[in-house]
Amino acid sequence: MAKFLYRIGKSAYHHKWRFIAVWLIILFALGGLATTFSKSTNTSFSIPGLDSVVTQEKMQERFPDAGDMASAPTGSIVVQAPAGKSLQDPDQEAAVAKLVQDLQSKPYLANTEAIVAPQLAAMGMQQQLTEAKTAQGVPEEQIAADIRALSPLSEDGRTGTINVAFDAASAMDIDAADRTDLKSTLDAAASDNLQVSYAGQAFSGQGEMGMASELIGIAVAALVLMITFGSFVAAGMPLISAVVGVAIGLLGVMLGTAFTDSINDMTPTLASMIGLAVGIDYALFIVSRFRNELIAQIGNDLTPAELAAEIKKTTVAQRAEAMGLAVGKAGSAVVFAGITVIIALTALSIINIPFLTAMALAAAATVVIAVLVALSFLPAVLGLLGTKVFAARVPGVQAPDPEDEKPTMGLLWVRRIRNRPILHLVLGVVFLGLLAIPAGQLRLAMPTDGSEPLGSPARVAYETTAEAFGPGRNAPMIALVDLVDVAPEQRQQAMGAALSEISATEGVENAQVVKTTDSLDTAQIMITPKYGATDERTSETLTALRDHVPAFEEATGATYGITGVTPIFDDISARLQNVLLPYIAIVLALAFLVLMLVFRSIWVPLIAAAGFALSVAATFGITVGFFQEGWLGLIDDPQPLLSFLPIMLIGLVFGLAMDYQVFLVTRMREGWAHGKTAGNATSNGFKHGARVVTAAALIMISVFAAFMMQDAAFIKTMGFALAVAVAFDAFVVRMMIIPATMFLLDERAWWLPKWIDRILPKVDIEGEALAK
């Protein structure tokens, strides 16, 4: 592979315009296709095969008008009068009437004749339910409770809800202009006399993806690169390469919406986050190696100014040769590092969760593009610059080369570790172990309106509804009672038994039959729990309801399943939590096998995998502490972590950790393979790799941390967790625990049983074939 990459690098340098033209054609072609064919990203989360999803599918068969609750184009508008007033007061009543009139005039809303003021809707519902339930012999006390559970008007008359539905097949099919127009109408209706908020899938459309996070990450990366290379021009090369790769990746993701509904609205941001970070890092590694190869031709002990002057004297053939060697040697490590990230991401597809698979594959595709751009587009751009690649010196920055006689900071640090390896090993392990303790309190939940940013319309609507109607109003469930196998004359009795069983379950506030088929072979029971959607007690209530099913089926011959947005989300969280440990085991095993293949060692993969596990555990612990438990009050809205965050984090951190392992340990093995003692090879390899890994880690930390500015809870938390994970893995694991362990193992670090060595394929990641 090293020879093949050598030819690519050299050819791209010589034939720069051909390579640049190809990438520009790809960029503009994808831009045109994405603009023409892309659709809105999906806003729903669903997993085939879950109990709640199977029940929903059965309900759609028996009740064709039921629809998909997780993606229905519906929303709820919450109106509230000021404290001490009622929606039936003249001023408030007039304001609500004006809002209703405006809603009824919207051509994009369905069933506008059903949109009425909450006061009128409550009166009609009360009359209808009272008459129907009285005729059924339902006690007055129960009738009153059933009305309270469904009424669109709170008991004090201060708060009301108005349900709306867009004339669209699903929430993702709503025209963005129509959604914006409705939001504007609702925002304009808010006044001192009336608070108006709104929530639901209909209002959760794709917003404009702000670029502030990317720009901040790029700015910090530029600063790190200028310090690394001592040149403004060289610092810009990884940035240009990464931006081109991210642009192509994002356009590809948007084009993918034309072919699948599984692309979630968080997918582009995640792909951008990962693509930008790895794109800069991979380009940094190649530019750094290109600089080293040029210095090897010119001579050591050169300042950036002297280097720039000497480069002007080189020929195109010399620079092309250096570029070929850089891509052949560093490119091999980049390819392997990229493969580890890609494998870790694509492995998420084994969990069989469509939206998670789409997110992982989109991020993986962006990494593939980042690797290809770094290997072919970047050398072409460097060829375009010619002798000016390290020009425009940064004042005050020396950026000495590792081959200089003066010890670098990396060499000074690794000497400290070599003098006291046990101390540094124990300190690193204890530090990460203590931070990992809070991970035992990890709670997972899917995003709801209650996890939206404080003060947002959806969050205000959620909190207002919980306060006025009880928290359970935000977490409704539906029990679908299947009476097909029950004799027709016994169906009413079995339905009543189901209602009694459900109503008596701990945590259920109200349960009532809301719909039946004409033959009474199926019934829907609306369940209002006592607690909110993300409350652990709601999950316990759902479990208790399902636990009653076997006994109920044995007693009556009927059965029931529970569905609704809350049960679906709860089932997703449970599925993700159940596969978390198996996925970690798969990733650790994968890390061991791949690293054993590359480094021809048993101990190096073991300590690499163990270090990865430590950094992930510490990341979980500190993320739970700040974002879930609210440590130090730094997060003003502590919430359970999003269900798919831990498993995505594991996949991403695995890939990044293996990047650093490759960049750092490759030079160690190269020195040992060429005759150095194990200890000297570790020191020498660390000296060469420390600057690149430090720069790469600082860039990734800045890129990920910048995404904490995003409003989306998942992106904010993921940005923090990734930034912390990179810091732990790069600076504690790779730069302290790994060298300390390597010094302690000494020659045994490179031990590999002969029979394994014979069956393992040879991987030339150090570019030895080029040296020969």
Would you kindly provide a written description of the structure presented here, covering whatever features stand out?
- With about 775 residues, the protein is of the alpha+beta class.
- It folds into 4 domains: about 230 residues, Multidrug efflux transporter AcrB transmembrane fold (Up-down Bundle); about 110 residues, Multidrug efflux transporter AcrB pore domain (Alpha-Beta Plaits, 2-Layer Sandwich), CATH 3.30.70.1430; about 130 residues; about 220 residues, Multidrug efflux transporter AcrB transmembrane domain (Multidrug efflux transporter AcrB transmembrane fold, Up-down Bundle), CATH 1.20.1640.
- It contains 26 helices and 9 strands.
- Helix 9 packs antiparallel against helix 10.
Task: Report the C-alpha radius of gyration, rounded.
Answer: 31 Å
Largest sheet: 4 strands, antiparallel
* Corresponding CATH architecture of the largest domain: Up-down Bundle
Shape: elongated
- Secondary-structure class: alpha+beta
Q: Based on DSSP secondary structure assignment, what is the total number of beta strands?
A: 9
Give average pLDDT, whole number: 85
CATH class of the largest domain reads Mainly Alpha
Tell me the strand order in the biggest sheet: 6-7-5-8
Q: Kindly identify the CATH topology of the largest domain.
A: Multidrug efflux transporter AcrB transmembrane fold
User: How many structural domains are formed by the residues?
Assistant: 4
The rounded distance between the terminal residues' Cα atoms is 14 Å
Supply the CATH superfamily name of the largest domain. Answer: Multidrug efflux transporter AcrB transmembrane domain
The amount of helix comes to: 55-70%
> Counting H and I runs of at least 4 residues, what is the number of helices?
26
Question: Low-confidence parts lasting 5 or more residues at pLDDT below 50?
Answer: none
Proportion of β residues? 5-15%
Subcellular location: Cell membrane
Main location: membrane
Organism: Corynebacterium kalinowskii
Transmembrane segments: 215-235, 242-260, 266-287, 333-355, 361-385, 422-440, 580-599, 606-627, 647-668, 689-708, 720-745
